[in-house]
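Re: that chain you flagged

S.,

Sorry for the slow reply, it's been a week of failed gels. I finally had a moment to sit down with the sequence you sent. For the record, here it is as I used it:
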Amino acid sequence: MRGRFAKRIGPAPEAAWAVSRAPSGSGATILPGPGLIAAGIVASTLLTTAAGAAERGQITLRGTVPAVCTVALSASSATLEVVRGQSATPVATVEERCNAAAGYTVSVTSRNGGQLRQEGAASGVSYAVSYDQVSSNSGALVAVRAPTGSARVGTLAVEVPASPEAPAGDYVDVLTVSISAK
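Prediction finished late last night. Pasting the structure tokens below so you have them in one place:
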């Protein structure tokens, strides 16, 4: 213990020894005493773990993006010519957007099953509906799409055959366009 000093704390010889410092500033030394020996063992164990082995932990980061599908319609002001008929008449522009990983479908359905009808009539004038190269005479169609997050724009069109014997009056049908993730 050359160059170091220790100071005993307490009146009895079994009292703990205090921390002493070397004059050269080389750090602290713990001198033996009943309470400090256990503390010295714990401290050296902690130092050995910190210096001897690299400790590491992992954090798992997770994020969720829900499937969001939207459809927007811009209806044209087309009036359909029932008596003379019309071919491939655009009736709406459809903007579809869906980020579903498995893709999505766009469905078009007719309230009257693909017929223009007068109010209260059981039957009417049949027509064909087409959307983005898919067409149907029944008033219902489904376009299947691959996954994409960007907007896609298509044209909804109808074709009405000539019906010169159709009774006078207003003929109506309602088309519903819907989009859903697969």
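What I noticed first: The domain at 69-181 is CATH 2.60.40 (Immunoglobulin-like).

Talk soon,
D.
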